[in-house]
Amino acid sequence: MSLTTAEVTHVARLARLRLSPDELEHMRGQLSDILDYIAMLQEVDVTGVPITAQVTGLTSVLRPDGVVGTLSLDQVLANAPDAQDGMFRVRAVFDE
Predict the structure, then answer these.
(1) 5-14 vs 21-42: helix axis angle to the nearest 10?
(2) To which H or E segment does residue 84 belong?
(3) Are 28 and 5 in contact (CB under 8 A)?
(4) Phi, psi of 83 (to 5 degrees)
(5) CB under 8 Å to 33, separation ≥6 — which residues?
(6) Cβ distance 3 to 35 under 8 Å?
(7) CA–CA gap between residue 76 and residue 90 (Å, rounded)
(8) What radius of gyration, in Å, describes the C-alpha atoms of the chain?
(9) Neighbours of 29 (CB within 10 A)
(10) 3-state SS class at 87
(11) pTM for the complete prediction?
């Protein structure tokens, strides 16, 4: 399927891309090739092929979430470079 320059210009505008005439022609060729490949894939007979969401057999390698003990306020603030009134004290970001 060969796209026109007007169609590529429309797609570029939707994507908020400012393309030069050379870039438009280059993109026209690339997008047309992509659509040709998709058309070729649509010709493949997939009757009887189950819908597949994951093909790699991926399983979670993370441990399950579980409730564990918490740190006390003193433990949390023990390594803080500066603390005041049970909170981290940081340098001001904005001038007052």
Answers:
(1) 100
(2) strand 83-84
(3) yes
(4) -135, 150
(5) none
(6) yes
(7) 15
(8) 29
(9) 13
(10) strand
(11) 0.51
Q: How far apart are alpha carbons 40 and 37 in whole angstroms? A: 5
Q: How many Cβ atoms from other residues are within 10 Å of residue 3's Cβ?
A: 19
Contact 25, 3 (CB under 8 A): no
Inform me whether the pLDDT recorded for 91 exceeds 90. no
d(CA 17, CA 8) in angstroms, rounded, equals: 11
Do 38 and 6 touch, CB atoms closer than 8 A? Answer: no
Nearest to 90 by CA among 74, 71, 77, 73: 77
Please say whether the beta carbons of 25 and 5 come within 8 A.
Answer: yes
Q: Write out pLDDT tens, residues 11-26.
A: 999 999 999 999 999 9
> Residues, the chain, total?
96
Report whether 38 contacts 44 (CB < 8 A).
Answer: no
Q: Determine the 3-state secondary structure of 79 from DSSP.
A: coil
**Mean pLDDT score of the chain, rounded to an integer?**
91
